[in-house]
Design goal:
This protein is mainly alpha-helical. The protein contains eleven helices and two strands, in the order αββαααααααααα.
Length: 217
């Protein structure tokens, strides 16, 4: 896998810091730090070459076609179609859930993609397991629960909750001059207008789910 992704051959006897390993395999994040400093020349005999080709074939057969760990796998349009975010927005959200860690089952990127795909596409856990190459629907359910808890802890309080902004910041950075003129009669007064008529809310691309979740209130 290192050769396929980084064009580096790891010879027998090579060593690696344990911090870069997970379940005796190189962590996904570690691939980003591998750099080729000079041309790599190596000699192998016929038996080693046969083993090398066999390993390459095995890796290619296991290669995922729906892989959020490979940041070149999807374009911005692909990201938006599956998770409802651009690649840049998705990368930013991944950094937000700092309490989550990669595991032998999934990376943080895959976990977040599963969660967002569930919200956007309303697919069953069984189908998500197939698409994301996970063992079964119970694994998907566990991943969704983990991501939900992480977002509630590290994203919601700072971006969506009422406590994510203090009064003075709301006045100085979010209150317009015309609102201050029309709705306040004292200096440094906070004006709050609650009107959700034109607030854009993303809808699921699943028409049946839209109909079931539609509300007049």
């Amino acid at each position: 896998m290192i050769f396929l992704k980084c064009d580096v051959v790891v010879v027998p006897g090579s060593r690696c810091c344990k911090d870069h390993l997970c379940e005796d395999e190189l962590t996904i994040k570690s691939f980003d730090h591998i750099r080729v400093s000079k041309a790599d020349r190596w000699k192998i005999d016929s038996n080693e070459f046969q083993m090398f080709v066999a390993d390459i074939r095995a890796m290619l057969f296991k290669q995922k076609t729906f892989d959020f760990d490979d940041q070149t796998c999807f374009s911005d349009e692909g990201y938006q179609s599956i998770v409802g975010l651009t690649k840049e927005q998705f990368d930013h959200l991944v950094k937000t859930v700092s309490s989550m860690r990669n595991s032998h089952v999934r990376s943080v990127r895959v976990a977040l993609a599963v969660f967002l795909a569930k919200l956007r596409l309303a697919l069953s856990n069984r189908i998500l397991a197939v698409l994301f190459h996970l063992d079964n629907k119970r694994v998907v359910s566990h991943i969704i629960s983990q991501v939900r808890k992480a977002l509630m802890k590290e994203f919601v309080p700072y971006h969506l909750n009422l406590q994510h902004i203090n009064r003075q910041t709301a006045i100085e950075e979010h209150q317009t001059a015309i609102a201050t003129i029309l709705y306040t009669n004292k200096p440094n007064q906070l004006c709050v207008v609650a009107d959700g008529t034109y607030i854009f809310i993303q809808k699921s691309s699943n028409n049946l789910l839209q109909r079931k979740s539609y509300s007049m209130h």
